[in-house]
Q: What sequence folds into this?
């Protein structure tokens, strides 16, 4: 099972523009895995969206789920 | 203004069947408060004034600077040093003398926010810092005002409409449902640090003006409970559905008294760190020697630094490249002194107490500024 991840804002400096990870059951395990692969992400602020919905709690991922990592911006 | 002239001015929008004379009347009766007359505020103000929003308030305590002009296209070189809100009000008054424009040359604070918001129907957030953004959001929730939100960083922008119900049964999602707590200063970069292209501010600002007109006239589908993102390098738009979080209401001051007591600056600031050194201390350290100075900016960031010996290890690659560091004292620097604080954190976790590790306060920008004045 592949999960595709699109990365936004300055988070791309840490993890690139996109990622594909195998066998990740839900967003909580995804966060754990991401923070092992990219420790700097643990210090960054972001929310996770699954299939274009911002996930407020742990969300199950399915085959070909598209996940987005969205950081806050403050520029104006 | 006489009716014929009024019709002529707005004719191209009045002939839209969805909009009509009724839409124009709604705009002329609307009162909109624009906070921040900068990169986002300028296009928002220009389009709203041109469209005939009856009353526009402009809050900004800043003055026009030369490095604003690449994106704040309302102003010209003659405006440098003048109050943004005052100048914007004058320029917009020339564009459309038939509307009322009220400049507020003051900083938005918990003391004036609620009083100001009272006078307006819709609030527009074009500010450039998190503490004001969270303050605006909370005030809008407390006063039940729709909030048009936009933010930019480098090549990306975000737009949304918060605290607005399209239908009675909808939930009114606000900024804290998306990002419950403000990030600390070192968790994100501000505009000054991150850089931004002018047209992006124009695109996102124009979208904010468009959402405002939709809210007032009731046409189309506003971005309530949605976050729109735009990437100007890839021409990619994404739209994300937002939903309310249970904990949000506990994060927002429950009443006016609690709001007045909230310190938004503090919520967003990282405390003054012992590991920071001022530019003059830094100059002294270099003179003494036995110090490794590290530029933790990403490759290609300007200005280039050849005023003192330093080596470049971008923050993102710092932890893998510490073998290059030999001296007992390390000073990290970046553009404005935020990323170098993160570098101190990383280096301290590697070297512990073995080395003295500092961050240059204010970054290379501040250092160059001081050096010029000497």
A:
């Amino acid at each position: 099972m592949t999960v595709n991840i699109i990365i936004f804002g300055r988070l791309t400096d840490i993890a690139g523009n996109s990622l594909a990870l195998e066998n990740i059951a839900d967003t909580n395990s995804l966060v754990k895995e991401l923070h092992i692969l990219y420790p700097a992400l643990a210090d960054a602020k972001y929310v996770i969206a699954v299939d274009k919905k911002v996930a407020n709690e742990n969300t199950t991922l399915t085959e070909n789920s598209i996940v987005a990592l969205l950081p806050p911006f403050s520029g104006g | 203004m006489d009716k014929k002239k009024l019709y002529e001015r707005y004719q191209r929008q009045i002939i839209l069947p969805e909009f009509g004379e009724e839409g124009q009347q709604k705009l002329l009766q609307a009162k909109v408060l624009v906070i921040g007359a900068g990169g986002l505020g300028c296009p928002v103000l220009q389009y709203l004034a041109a469209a005939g929003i009856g009353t526009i308030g402009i809050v900004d305590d800043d003055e026009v600077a030369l490095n604003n002009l690449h994106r704040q296209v309302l102003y010209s070189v003659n405006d440098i040093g003048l109050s943004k809100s005052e100048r914007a009000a004058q320029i917009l008054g020339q564009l459309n003398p038939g509307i009322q424009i009220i400049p507020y040359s003051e900083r938005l604070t918990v003391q004036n926010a609620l009083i100001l918001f009272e006078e307006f129907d819709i609030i527009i957030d074009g500010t450039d810092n998190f503490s004001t953004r969270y303050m605006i959001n909370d005030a809008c929730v407390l006063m039940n005002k729709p909030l048009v939100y936009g933010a930019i960083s480098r090549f990306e922008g975000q737009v949304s409409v918060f605290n607005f119900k399209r239908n009675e049964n909808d939930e009114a999602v606000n900024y804290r449902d998306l990002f419950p707590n403000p990030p600390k200063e070192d968790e994100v970069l501000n505009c000054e640090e991150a850089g931004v292209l002018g047209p992006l501010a124009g695109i996102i600002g124009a979208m904010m003006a468009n959402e405002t007109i939709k809210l007032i006239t009731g046409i189309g589908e506003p971005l309530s409970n949605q976050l729109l993102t735009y990437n100007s390098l890839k021409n990619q738009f994404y739209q994300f559905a937002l939903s309310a979080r249970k904990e949000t209401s506990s994060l927002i001051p429950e009443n006016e008294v609690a709001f007045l007591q909230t310190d938004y600056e503090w919520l967003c600031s990282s405390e003054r760190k012992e590991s920071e050194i001022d530019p003059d201390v830094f100059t002294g350290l270099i003179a003494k020697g036995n110090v490794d100075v590290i530029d933790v900016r990403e490759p290609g960031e300007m200005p280039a630094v050849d005023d003192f010996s330093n080596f470049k290890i971008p923050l993102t690659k710092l932890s893998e490249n510490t073998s290059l560091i030999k001296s007992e004292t390390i000073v990290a620097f970046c553009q404005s002194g935020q990323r170098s604080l993160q570098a101190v954190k990383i280096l301290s976790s590697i070297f512990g107490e073995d080395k003295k590790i500092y961050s240059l306060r204010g970054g290379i920008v501040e250092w160059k500024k001081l050096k010029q004045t000497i």
User: Anything to note?
Assistant: DSSP finds 15 helices and 13 strands in chain B. Chain B touches chain A through 48 residues (CB under 8 Å). The first helix of chain B runs from residue 3 to 14.
